[in-house]
Write a structure and sequence with these properties.
This protein has a single domain, classed as 3-Layer(aba) Sandwich (Rossmann fold), CATH 3.40.50.880. Helices cover 19% and strands 32% of the residues. Strands 2-1-3-4-12-11-10-7 form an eight-stranded mixed β-sheet. The N terminus is likely disordered.
Length: 260
Amino acid sequence: MSTTRQSILYLGDTSLSSAAGYLAGLMTRFGLDYEYVPSDQALSSEQASVRRRLFIVSDYPSAMMLGPVQEIMLDQVNNHGAGLLMIGGWESFHGHGGNWDSTPIGNALPVEIASEDDRINCDQPALLLQGEAHEITAELPWNVRPPTVGGFNRVVARPGSLTAILVQSFGVTFESGRFNFTPQQQHPMLVLNAHGKGRTAALMTDLAPHWVGGLVDWGDSERVTAKAAGSWEIEVGNFYSQLVLNLLIWTGNLQRRSLR
């Protein structure tokens, strides 16, 4: 198996000049080396064979990764301790053209993927809640400043997995001069597990607009700017940035880094 200094393979989110600029920008800011493959480019067996620490699949259709190529990637996770992270979107999980259900990658994830359209587009508030305690979500202000998202993929956590974040949807009416919030169903938002020697994570919302919603600005007065090569400068919230960093470090079992 060949080696490379790009410890992360990042697949999807259209292109670096569009949605991928968010995660790619943050990885550049964090000092994480990555190779990027846009959503309309098929992954080759040669690219999948390069030794990695983390594979990220986000808004990348399963049709762009043949079954044997998926098995090559999973061999790194199962036998060499690489991490596998799927991030939500219209072409993630089942979505609208993702179709990851009943694929080798889909079966390795810590969630059960529907065989039909699983997209939930939120026109009313959907707030994130801390679930089971985990280092990814620790020391972030979930109780005093829960962030919102604009959409997510509806999945079921697999038995034995850990649900670190939930999403709580609300129906809202305005009557007699006040807003009335009615809690609706909760769904898993971040689910974690192991796969062989590696770690797996499923984040059911996107990290870029529009599904990311208010999460992208989650923070206090401190803002974080970042820019990937071939992209534009982004400006995001510091709590959002910390959550993304924590997620990448844990899933890829990477060296702990500072956001600053």
